[in-house]
Design brief:
By secondary structure, the chain is α/β, with parallel strands linked by helices. It contains 11 helices and 14 strands. The chain binds adenosine-5'-diphosphate. Adenosine-5'-diphosphate binds next to strand 1, strand 2 and helix 1.
Length: 332
């Protein structure tokens, strides 16, 4: 649905050059939600703005629904942009227009007849749960309501792609959850493809199927959210989980502290009981988290394993084979 090939973007400020993007390639499949994560200045906004050509890349190729965006004439580009909605951190609503007026705006631009546009606005107000606010002005709305208006406006011309630039960053946690719930429903019901940028892990865990991590204009990590979260050593894993802190844990003589990663099937196995039954190795729980990400259990455990040295080695081999990625944890 979206394909970026080897995108670079250089901003020139007088004699200074800033390479905001440096050879970025990304693909977002139809119906997929891909989250781009990265520190401030990593190039996230530039990247997302290259998709609808709010920024023109210095080099590379941008395809949306197979169309070569950089080859389009201005009129064709305006038309293509109607298939790409966008929402923003600070909502970017027209303060002098009502909620209904804001949502109707892109329809007027796209030349919808007023009657059909009115019907569409009503449909959208219902979709985002704001039917009673049609005549309110943005200043009379909460942050969450403003973003719902932003979403309704972005969806008005029935885009197939939604770009989201930190859409929940200015919202409190509860409102963030409700806006994320709305985006997830829209993704599922309308099959909308979503490319979003965020610095909130919660956003990735709640609605993203895949993730890309951007650092200094380059993609340094990319994959399915669950796979990246569950694998020790990835940036996503490090961002999500603090290092194990076994401070003060009284390791028994011969005992070993081992971190285990759990995801999907591996989280559903009675792994600790297996260690006891098959290898005579006892596992004591020291720390752990287990949560559902996209409906799949993901988490990790810190256990102390005790048993005969040979049995311990066999148990560790078994854990490795079964995908628990056992890691020795130093005793603090
Ligand atoms: P992020 O969204 O990850 O914070 P940006 O894409 O906004 O990153 O910025 C990436 C880099 O490009 C930064 O160094 C930023 O200062 C620079 N930059 C962004 N927009 C412009 C611009 N219009 N002119 C010059 N430099 C810019």
């Amino acid at each position: 649905m979206i394909e970026l090939r080897d995108i670079s973007k250089v901003y020139r400020q007088g004699k200074r050059e800033v390479r905001a993007l440096d050879g970025v390639s990304l693909r977002v499949a139809p119906g997929e939600v891909l989250g781009v994560l990265g520190h401030s200045g990593a190039g996230k906004s530039t990247l997302i703005r290259c998709v609808n050509l709010l920024e023109r890349p210095t080099a590379g190729e941008v395809r949306v629904e197979g169309r070569d965006m950089l080859a389009l004439a201005p009129r064709e580009l305006r038309h293509a942009r109607q298939g790409i909605g966008m929402i923003f951190q600070h909502f970017n609503l027209f303060s002098s227009q009502t909620v209904a007026g804001n949502i109707a705006y892109p329809l007027a631009i796209a030349g919808w007849p007023p009657g059909r546009a009115r019907e569409r606005v009503e449909e959208l107000l219902a979709l985002v749960g704001l039917s009673d606010k049609a005549q309110a002005y943005p200043a009379q709305l909460s942050g969450g309501q403003k973003q719902r208006v932003g979403i309704a406006r972005a969806l008005a011309p029935r885009p197939r792609v939604l770009l989201s630039d930190e859409a929940t960053s200015a919202l409190d946690p509860e409102t963030t959850r409700s806006v994320l719930g709305l985006l997830r429903d829209i993704n599922r019901q309308l099959g909308l493809t979503i490319l979003l940028i965020t610095h909130q892990m919660e956003v990735l865990k709640e609605i993203c199927h895949s993730a890309a991590v951007l650092e200094r204009g380059r993609v340094v990590e990319q994959g399915k959210v669950i796979d990246l979260l569950a694998r020790p050593g990835t940036r996503l894993n490090a961002l999500c989980y603090a290092p194990f802190a076994a401070a003060g844990w009284p390791v028994r003589p011969g005992g070993r502290l081992v971190g285990l990663s759990l995801a999907g099937d591996s989280a559903a196995q009675p792994v600790l009981a297996q260690l006891a039954r098959r290898f005579g190795v006892d596992a004591t729980l020291v720390e752990g988290t287990l949560e559902r990400v996209g409906g799949v259990p993901v988490g990790r455990l810190l256990v102390e394993l005790t048993g005969a040295p040979e049995a311990l080695e066999q148990a560790l081999g078994h854990l490795r084979e079964q995908g628990y990625s056992p890691e020795p944890v130093a005793h603090a």
